[in-house]
Amino acid sequence: EDQVTxxxxxxxxxxxxxxSLNCSYTVSGLRGLFWxxxxxxxxxxxxxxxxxxxxxxxxxxxxATLTKKESFLHITAPKPExxxxxxxxxxxxxxxxxxxxxxxxxxxxxVNP
Amino acid sequence: xxVVSQHPSRVICKSGTSVxxxxxxxxxxxxxxxxxxQFPKQSLMLMATSNEGSKATYEQGVxxxxxxxxxxxxxxxxxxxxxxxxxxxxxxxxxxxxxxxGVTNTGELFFGEGSRLTVL
Lengths: 113, 120
Prior knowledge:
By secondary structure, chain A is mainly beta. Chain A has no helices and eleven strands. Chain A binds chain B through residues 4, 31-32, 34, 36, 41-46, 49, 51, 87, 89, 91, 97-106, and chain B through 1, 4, 6, 32, 34, 41-46, 49, 59, 91, 93, 95, 97, 104-114, 116.
């Protein structure tokens, strides 16, 4: 069974204090690792998809990296508006058009001004 | 990214009643939509895959007679929680893939804003 573990569960940073969120995964036949941002009471907002080890993607202050066992979401010089829950999910190759994402529980990031 | 809209965003109902939640893809056609459920501080759990013009595919442990899914058009899927009970209270979120790029390996799954169901 696919497993996704995110750490830490919660992270408090001061504005400008860079850090990283971790997503460890176990999946047979990875067909994509996804990062989403979720604000309270809202649906997840797509950030990145990574497909193979060594791949990196960036968007503003966020950078996602992928290895064969984990992914990191690096946040450089965060701002209070970056406060949210960050979700990691994996997709396993189930063949055909079968499409299922397995999500982690998320990391609640709070950035204090 | 693509826009997925859900309605209502919040609903409160009495135990035993049925509640319908709509999910619309606003700027693209979605032959497949997905319904997720999220409990506080828990992962999103896939409930079912909604296929336009055919029966939904339910995940193990999800009662298909309780969670009725209809995907009557390429832009609309509905989830009906029948005979709702307090334990059905949760955050329900739909999602859809935008196939306009024509690449089936595209991983982007876009989510609606979610619907908070409270059953009294």
